[in-house]
Amino acid sequence: MGTLERIKEYIDYKGLNIKKFEEAVGFSNGSFASQLKNKRTIGVDKLENILNVFKEINPEWLLTGRGEMLLPEKSDALPVKNYNRLGCPYYNVDFQGGFELFYNNQTAMPEYFIDFSPYNKEGALWCNVSGKSMEPEISNGDMILIKEVQAWQDYLDFDDIYGIVTSNGFRTIKRIKKGSSKNTFTLVPANPDYESQEILKTMIMHIFKVLCAVKKF
User: Fold this and answer.
1) Across 130-154, average pLDDT
2) Which residue has the higher pLDDT, 177 or 44?
3) What is the separation of C-alpha 115 from the centre of its chain, rounded to a whole number of angstroms?
4) pLDDT in the model for residue 76
5) Cα torsion at 113, 204, 176, 6 (round to 10°)?
6) Is the omega angle on the peptide bond into residue 136 within 30 degrees of 0, that is, cis?
7) How do residues 27-62 score in pLDDT, each as one tens digit?
């Protein structure tokens, strides 16, 4: 099942007809129906429109088929530290310093696990963050839950925060925006005291989506 078929699956789940869906996301009349019939590729701009209108859709499911169709509902649950392998593993390393050495070490063992039901994602892990460039959203010393984005070359949600690892060892937490050319990204801090940076996409080795951040406990 491809992206178009998953969109149709969501339309059916919501009980919409295709015309109403096209109106909701700003598509021209009959455009999605034609794409679905002829199995044409849907553009990134149209995918962004869909995700902006139907915010409950899980972007990873939409693009890759992995995970659930819908994002988890917001919850009042609190993160709980445990040693029973409940939730996601926590590693006492800083993303900006030492993370790459840890990430390449397949024998690394977590210090404990953090059970936080809205964000217990397969393949996600907790680590530390240092630096003040994303304050007040993410503070120096916070713990962040991250998951690697496998197909970032195809699609990124520019509203989210990511951890970026480059080929020259640079590691940072930033929002990613479009660059001045199709070959670059702009890394945007939340803290106005820090400047945006533009980097070549070819320099990027890994991108991790920051799922949430909590104070260390």
Assistant:
1) 91
2) 177
3) 19
4) 62
5) -70
6) yes
7) 888 888 888 888 777 888 888 888 888 888 888 888
CA distance 185 to 42: 22
CA distance 147 to 153: 16
β-bridge partners, 23 = none
The proportion of the chain whose per-residue pLDDT surpasses 70, expressed as a percent, equals 96
Calculate the alpha carbon distances from 56 to 50, 51, 140, 160, 189 in Å. 10, 8, 30, 15, 26
Residues in the chain: 217
Q: What is the reported pTM?
A: 0.66
Using DSSP, how many helices (H) and how many strands (E) does the chain show? 6, 10
Q: By three-state DSSP, how is residue 207 classified?
A: strand
Per DSSP bridges, beta strands 88-94 and 125-128 are parallel
Q: Where are the alpha helices (DSSP H) in the chain?
A: 3-14, 18-25, 31-38, 44-53, 59-64, 99-103
Distance of CA 208 to the CA centre of its chain: 7
Going edge to edge, which strands form the sheet with 184-188?
80-82, 112-115, 88-94, 125-128, 143-148, 204-214, 161-166, 171-178, 184-188, 197-200
Q: Please report which helix (H) or strand (E) contains residue 213, including its range.
A: strand 204-214
> Across the chain, what does the average pLDDT equal?
88
Question: pLDDT band at residue 73, thresholds of 50, 70 and 90?
Answer: low
